[in-house]
Design goal:
With about 525 residues, the chain is an alpha/beta fold. It has helices at about 15-25, 70-80, 110-125, 125-150, 155-165, 165-170, 180, 190-195, 215-220, 230-245, 285-290, 295-300, 340-350, 395-415, 430-435, 455, 480-500, 515-520, and strands at about 5-10, 30-35, 45-50, 55-60, 90, 95-100, 105-110, 225, 250, 255-260, 265-270, 275, 280-285, 315-325, 330-335, 360, 380-385, 415-420, 425-430, 470. It contains 18 helices and 20 strands. The strands form five sheets. Strands 6, 7, 14, 15, 16, 17, 18 and 19 form an eight-stranded mixed beta sheet that branches.
Length: about 525
Amino acid sequence: MADRRVVIIGAGMGGLAAAIDLATQGCDVTLLERAASVGGKMREITIPDPGRADGVARIDAGPTVLTMRDVFEGLFADAGAQLADHVTLRPAGILARHAWSATERLDLHADLDQSADAIGAFAGGAEAHHYRAFCAQARHVFDTLNQPFMRSADPSPMSLMRAAGVRPMLKVAPFGRLWSELGRYFTDPRLRQLFGRYATYCGASPYLAPATLMLVAHVERAGVWLVDGGMHRLALAMSHLAQAKGARLRTGVEVAGLIVSGGRAAGVTLSTGERIAADMVVSNADPAAMSAGVMGAEAARATRHAASARRSLSAITWAMTARSSGFPLARHNVFFSQHYQAEFDDIARGALPTAPTVYVCAQDRETPEWDDADDRPERLLCLVNAPPVGDRRTFTAAEIDQCAQQTFSLLQRCGLSLERRPETTVITTPAQFDQLYRGTGGALYGPALDGWQAAFKRPRARATLPGLYLTGGGVHPGPGAPMAALSGRMAAAAVLRDGVSTASSRRKAMPGGMSMRSVTMAATD
């Protein structure tokens, strides 16, 4: 494969993972990134902060939760490296702290007994018993779907039935909705609300998402990891590994279109007019955005099947440094509104929620440097869900202010006071997310996961145009850092397999790294 030239568009999790695998196998890899740094949605915002050693606060403004660390350990190991040598991961002491009012709080832990005891104290012994049954079901769903769906390149309902068996598949309630299924386990509406929140991790409404998303509960209980220095450090570590294996990285360059020759992708054209020839092209762009024409007509035709999918959720975020008081923040915190369905009803009609649920990541918490007695500004990311309409309308300043009032009033009612300052706050809206990730409307998770069929309708690694491959959160197996990384590995495996079958020269042996067989099999397990 040393003679195979591969251009990768976008240095998000999928693009970086593909770059590592392909460069390890000796491909000539060029990785192109529109932004000034790698990471894609795993981005970092810097805010002036004279109280810190380097004068700035670096705030994670994308994914803040890392799970399934084995995905990244396997990626690094197959490249002859160790993840622990590149980033420091520590288990979160508390998976998340949840609040409904100043007196209603509940912590979830990785330890099943500890969480069950907390739920018993919060909602009664019967609900603690129900929680244990729920966790057993969540584990069954994960075990049933992990290999034949999440780690398979082209799953189908029939392939799942064959791999898992009819009875185990029916037990995961494949045709049910998450909200309805949760009602079988919990009578306390607050617990149903809490575990329904896992749907939003995939950008979906809990009222429409498939019941299989309860597997997220097991994934979190298996380990939530904190990355020293922030999540963006993981993206940087992946970038450094790809370059150490021989990939070339160019940031601040924008791809305007594909070069097509002989009926297959043959490179890319940059917005400057520069042309980069390649044997294969891997795109980490959102497939729906490609189908809308952001990378030209050829890319649009190759991804037209993605155009009809409904978009996932967008968000409004406030990245800030602020002093907090009154509420004992953990690293991950969720503050629930009293009118849960109204949040999703508002979003469905294209409006900002009047009763938002608020997620707060307190990035300085559970770090060696943090002291709960400190009275200094800390790094915070506050997030509320929003409609993905950023390419169709821009919310007015009055609408944003009203949303902020509802957001921070809820925090206040739950006991959390924040001393916010405009000069140390960066707000990102759906319109701004659309500018960052063109053609998405600000949708942050690819196509919406509505109903059981949606997961099977996501684009696969191979586009309809030969030589073009797809990766990222909009591609199977879906959104989230580990899923996007798996999609990158699947795209790399498809490139390697197709490259071998189309190469005019005999296959060459490659020393070290992941064998040709193991890369290819990663896409067919």
